[in-house]
């Protein structure tokens, strides 16, 4: 899985950041749209390996449903997308690279991209985190 995104490639790569509603639906759409285009690969990076259907979260709190009813593994939803579970730490817009850390030892990895979809906002993280930096760079 990791090798697939660090290998000497030269397919056109679309990287989607975030495995929530925005990221997953963008990836599903791209997967369908580009199903017959061999020279394109899609990679989704998210810190969780599952998609959480938040509108039914209150039913879990009320014990009306089991959590397994509203959680879906990303790799099951996205059959042709490389799913990479990790934290996005930096988005280097000029060099078209994303720096992520993953795994038990927080191994760092740089991923090249041709097109980037940013589908998260760091509401639960520190102020100067990845999306803030990227938005700042893009604005500046
Ligand atoms: C209890 C509850 C009920 C809701 N009900 C409704 C409803 O009925 N209707 C409605 O329209 N909306 C509802 N919402 C709001 C809805 O869930 C959000 O609007 C929606 O999830 C936003 O989608 P998103 O893709 O922008 O972000 P998110 O769903 O927050 O997804 C962001 C993803 O990016 C990942 N991520 C974030 N930072 C990083 C990072 N640095 N590195 C790697 N991954 C990262 C996160 O783990 C997450 O998977 C509800 C929300 C809650 C909490």
Account of the 3D structure:
The chain is an alpha/beta fold. The chain has a single domain, classed as FAD/NAD(P)-binding domain (3-Layer(bba) Sandwich). Helix content is 26%, strand content 32%. The protein contains 5 helices and 9 strands, in the order H-E-H-E-E-H-E-H-E-E-E-E-E-H. The protein has helices spanning 2-6, 21-33, 57-61, 74-77, 130-139, and strands at residues 12-17, 40-46, 50-52, 71-73, 82-85, 87-92, 97-102, 107-112, 115-118. The chain has a 4-stranded parallel sheet with strand order 5-2-1-9. Strands 6-7-8 form a 3-stranded antiparallel sheet. It has a two-stranded antiparallel ribbon with strand order 3-4. Strand 6 (87-92) and strand 7 (97-102) form a beta hairpin. It starts with a helix and ends with a helix. 24% of the residues are buried. The structure holds flavin-adenine dinucleotide. The site of flavin-adenine dinucleotide has 19 residues, from helix 2, strand 2 and strand 6.
Label this structure with key terms.
alpha/beta; three-stranded antiparallel β-sheet; globular; disordered C terminus
CATH superfamily: FAD/NAD(P)-binding domain
Report low-confidence residues grouped into runs of 5 or more. 123-127, 136-140
Largest sheet: 4 strands, parallel
What structural category characterises the helix and strand content? Answer: alpha/beta
CATH C-level label? Alpha Beta
Number of domains: 1
Q: How much of the sequence is in beta strands?
A: 25-35%
- Shape by Cα distribution: globular
| Helix percentage range | 25-40%
Radius of gyration: 16 Å
How are the strands of the biggest sheet laid out side by side?
5-2-1-9
H/E element string? HEHEEHEHEEEEEH
Bound molecules: flavin-adenine dinucleotide
Number of strands: 9
CATH fold node name: FAD/NAD(P)-binding domain
CATH architecture: 3-Layer(bba) Sandwich
Number of helices: 5
Mean pLDDT: 86
Quaternary status: single chain
End-to-end C-alpha gap: 34 Å
């Amino acid at each position: 899985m990791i090798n697939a995104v660090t290998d000497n490639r030269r397919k056109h790569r679309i990287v989607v950041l975030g495995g929530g509603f925005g990221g997953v639906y963008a990836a599903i759409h791209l997967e369908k749209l580009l199903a017959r285009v061999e020279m394109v690969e899609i990679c989704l990076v998210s810190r969780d390996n599952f998609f959480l259907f938040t509108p039914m979260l209150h039913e879990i709190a009320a014990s009306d449903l089991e959590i397994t009813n509203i959680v879906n593994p990303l790799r099951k939803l996205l059959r042709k997308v490389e799913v990479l579970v990790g934290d996005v730490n930096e988005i280097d817009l000029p060099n078209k690279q994303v720096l992520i850390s993953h795994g038990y030892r927080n191994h760092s990895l740089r991923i090249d991209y041709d097109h980037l979809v940013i589908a998260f906002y760091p509401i639960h993280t520190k102020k100067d985190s990845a999306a803030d930096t990227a938005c700042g760079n893009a604005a500046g």
